[in-house]
Structure formats: structure tokens, C-alpha cells
């Protein structure tokens, strides 16, 4: 079994010889400032692409779509993630940052159209647009984040892997904040203006586009002398990482799809159901930050094991506890669940050091697409099984991911302490 992995080297300079950490005007921007800009772009992209769960009951009602089709609707939104490996390969070869901007533009436009479509099939078409363009953003964004971590490490004379987990966590926090806050914002818009008012959510992206153009870093294209991807050697590790991430994605997508519907069935309001998802995803940023932070120090497997076991226990607790405990239990579940996300992405990048964007596209995008397909199939069982049974099945999925942890690649060794 080939489990030895290496940190991907920072991408080389482009043919022009310019430093990719400089702006178009030639002014150097500190890596932390660029990291925050990338995180903000991630916030806008994932917010526009993922607010649907917060208003899904209202959209289904507006378009007369049965609840049994909720999984199919969400799958249409998420299946485009399967294209992340393709976009990752393209990103590694062309460099630059154009996929980041195309991705944000597409998700923003699609998000504005959700409330304006006249029927089921037009909704599916818009959601597919969102999914395809959302997938463009992530591989290039994650590769740029890793590049910034390496640049900062070189500037501070640290090891090549120093703080790469933390940098990836900061980038991911932007996306989780977007996915968590925008469903609640969308529910407030729908309550005040109806579904046709959802176009308002496109305004933040329009207003901040000049900032993104000025600050988002550029990637150099893949070096012409770089060797081909050693698929035969990497495939076993990739299969394990993608399988693990797909089960984690199934849990995430099941929660954001079915928890608001379960809450609505119990006679609760649209806003309170959306607030559950906001609680899960926004508090989950603690997991994003702490997962990358602790993995840099104690290794990935201990963090992954604690994350998966806690996810199973907390989801079971949510299903058994009285409604008043729903918010604190989902908050803790978000922390546990998202602690594994930056680590899975880094594992994908480590396995394919020749193509880091492709590696992250497989670990995140392909896994998310498989998770979306699973949620679509689970949605078809809602009428016969009930929503609670679908969520109990995800408790079992979390237990399976815990059993997979010892077989995942460990990756870079944690940094020694300063006292050592």
C-alpha cells in the first residue's frame, strides 16, 4: 500500500517570470490579505450557490413540487461538483484565476434566477448552471490558498508544510459562513418579498467585484517539465480519500436538505428551520479552524477519528432529544463534521503533488457529487421511510467513516513544538 505522501511544492513562476503574489499593478500584497480576499470570494460563491436549503420548502410550494423530489432538486444543485476534477486539471494547466471569476459569476447569476423560474424543469436547469459554475471556483481557489501558505512559510523560514492546514481552514471558513448565513438571509427575503425577491442576494457580489479583481492571486500554469500523474501508484489512496469524503458529504447534504423539511413538517416556521442550518454551518467554522490547526500539530488521523465518532453521537442525540436542544446539538455537530473537511482536501493535494488542483477537485468535487447522488436516492425513500429514518441512516454512515480513518493516508508529519 502506497501511503507515503508529500506536500505539493509551490507552483513555479509563470513564463513571464513575475511573482504570482503581486497585483496587476505590481504592488506586493501580504499573503494574509490575499488569503482573506480568497476567503471572502469563497463566502460569496458558496453563499449564492447554497442558500436553497433555507427556502426549499417555499420553493417547492411555489412551484407545486412534491416533497419526495426534494432530494432530486438538491442533487441537481450539487451534481456539478463531479466536474471539479476536470476543472482542477484545467486549472493546473492554464494557471491564472479566470475559473475563480467565471465560477463566482455563474453562481451569482444562477442564485438570482432561482426565484424567477416558472416551473420544475426550469428550476433544474438553473440549479445545474449553479452547480457547474460553482465547481469551477473551488480547485483554483484551493490551489491558490496552498500556494499562499507555502509562500508565507518560505518568508518565515518555516518548513514547507507549516500552517498549510490553518491556511486551508481559513479559506474554507469563508465558504462555510456563506453556506450558513445565506440560507437564513434568503428565508428573510422570502418572508418579506416572496421568492421573486431572491435576486437581491446577487448585489454583494456585484458591489465587491472590483476588490476581487484587484486582490485575488494568480496561479502559474503547471510547469512544462513536470512529470505525468502516477495514477497506478496514487489510485488506492485516492479511492479511500474520495470514499471517505463522499460519506462525509452525504451527511452534510442530508442535514441541509432534510432537517428544514423535518422542521416544517412539525409545524415550525420557515425562518426557524433555516436557522437550524445556519447554526450547523456557521458554528461549524470552529471545526474548520480547529481541524486544520490541530492536524498541523498532532497529525490528521486523530482529528479525523474524533470528528467522525462525534458526528455519529451528536446526530443520534439530535434525533432523540427534545426540540429545544436542536440548536446546541446541531452547533456541536457542525464543529465535529467540518473538522474533517480541510484535512480531506489536503490529503487529495498530497496524493497528487503533480496536480494539486486536480487532487483537491477529486477529494472535494467528486466526493460531493457522489454524496449528492446518494442524497437523491435517499430522497426517493422519504415517502416510505420518513425523514427521521433517512437521518438515522446517516448515523450509520458516520460510523463507517470512523472505521475508515486508520486506512487513510496520514500525510505530512506534524510540526515539532518550539520547546522540542
Strand content: under 5%
End-to-end span in angstroms?
32 Å
CATH superfamily: MFS general substrate transporter like domains
In total, the number of strands is 0
Largest sheet features: none
The tally of domains stands at: 1
Number of helices: 17
What is the C-level CATH assignment?
Answer: Mainly Alpha
Annotated CATH topology: Growth Hormone, Chain: A
Low-confidence stretches: 1-29, 412-420
Which structural class do the helices and strands define?
Answer: mainly alpha
- Rounded to an integer in angstroms, the radius of gyration calculated over CA atoms is 20 Å
Quote the average pLDDT: 79
How would the global form be characterised? Answer: globular
Describe this structure in words.
The chain is 71% helix and 0% strand. The protein is an all-alpha fold. It has a single domain, classed as Growth Hormone, Chain: A.
Entry keywords:
single chain, 420 residues, mainly alpha, Growth Hormone, Chain: A
Topology diagram in text:
Layout: H1 31-50, H2 52-62, H3 70-78, H4 84-94, H5 98-113, H6 120-155, H7 164-193, H8 203-215, H9 231-265, H10 270-283, H11 285-298, H12 300-320, H13 326-338, H14 341-351, H15 356-379, H16 382-385, H17 387-404
Helix pairs in contact: 1-5, 1-6, 1-7, 1-8, 2-7, 2-9, 2-10, 3-6, 3-15, 4-6, 4-15, 5-6, 6-7, 6-15, 7-10, 7-11, 7-14, 9-10, 9-14, 9-15, 9-17, 10-13, 11-12, 11-13, 12-13, 12-17, 14-15
Amino acid at each position: 500500500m502506497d501511503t507515503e505522501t508529500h506536500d505539493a511544492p509551490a507552483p513555479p513562476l509563470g513564463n513571464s517570470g513575475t511573482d504570482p503574489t503581486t497585483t496587476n499593478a505590481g504592488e506586493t500584497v501580504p499573503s494574509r490579505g490575499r488569503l482573506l480576499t480568497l476567503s471572502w470570494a469563497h463566502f460569496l460563491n458558496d453563499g449564492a450557490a447554497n442558500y436553497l436549503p433555507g427556502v426549499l420548502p417555499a420553493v417547492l410550494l411555489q412551484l407545486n413540487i412534491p416533497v419526495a423530489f426534494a432530494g432530486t432538486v438538491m442533487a441537481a444543485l450539487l451534481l456539478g461538483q463531479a466536474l471539479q476534477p476536470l476543472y482542477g486539471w484545467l486549472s493546473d494547466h492554464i494557471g491564472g484565476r479566470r475559473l475563480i471569476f467565471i465560477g463566482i459569476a455563474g453562481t451569482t447569476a444562477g442564485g438570482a434566477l432561482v426565484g424567477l423560474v416558472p416551473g420544475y424543469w426550469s428550476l433544474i436547469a438553473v440549479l445545474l448552471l449553479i452547480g457547474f459554475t460553482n465547481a469551477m471556483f473551488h480547485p483554483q481557489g484551493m490551489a491558490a490558498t496552498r500556494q499562499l501558505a507555502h509562500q508565507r512559510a518560505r518568508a518565515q523560514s518555516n518548513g514547507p508544510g507549516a500552517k498549510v492546514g490553518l491556511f486551508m481552514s481559513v479559506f474554507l471558513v469563508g465558504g462555510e459562513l456563506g453556506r450558513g448565513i445565506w440560507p437564513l438571509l434568503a428565508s428573510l427575503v422570502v418572508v418579506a418579498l416572496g421568492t421573486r425577491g431572491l435576486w437581491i442576494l446577487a448585489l454583494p457580489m456585484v458591489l465587491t467585484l472590483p476588490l476581487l479583481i484587484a486582490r485575488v492571486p494568480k496561479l502559474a500554469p503547471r510547469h512544462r517539465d513536470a512529470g505525468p500523474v502516477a495514477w497506478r501508484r496514487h489510485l488506492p489512496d485516492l479511492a479511500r480519500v474520495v470514499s471517505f469524503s463522499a460519506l462525509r458529504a452525504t451527511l452534510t447534504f442530508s442535514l441541509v436538505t432534510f432537517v428544514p423539511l423535518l422542521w416544517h413538517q412539525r409545524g415550525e416556521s420557515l425562518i426557524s428551520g433555516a436557522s437550524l442550518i445556519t447554526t450547523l454551518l456557521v458554528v461549524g467554522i470552529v471545526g474548520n479552524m480547529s481541524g486544520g490547526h490541530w492536524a498541523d500539530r498532532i497529525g490528521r488521523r486523530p482529528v479525523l477519528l474524533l470528528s467522525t465518532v462525534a458526528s455519529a453521537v451528536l446526530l443520534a442525540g439530535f434525533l432523540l432529544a427534545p426540540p429545544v436542544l436542536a440548536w446546541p446539538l446541531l452547533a456541536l455537530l457542525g464543529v465535529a463534521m467540518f473538522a474533517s473537511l480541510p484535512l480531506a482536501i489536503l490529503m487529495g493535494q498530497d496524493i497528487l503533488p503533480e496536480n494539486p488542483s486536480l487532487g483537491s477537485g477529486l477529494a472535494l468535487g467528486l466526493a460531493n457529487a457522489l454524496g449528492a447522488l446518494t442524497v437523491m436516492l435517499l430522497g426517493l425513500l422519504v415517502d416510505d421511510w420518513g425523514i427521521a429514518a433517512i437521518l438515522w441512516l446517516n448515523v450509520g454512515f458516520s460510523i463507517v467513516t470512523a472505521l475508515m480513518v486508520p486506512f487513510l493516508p496520514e500525510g505530512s508529519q506534524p510540526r515539532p513544538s518550539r520547546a522540542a
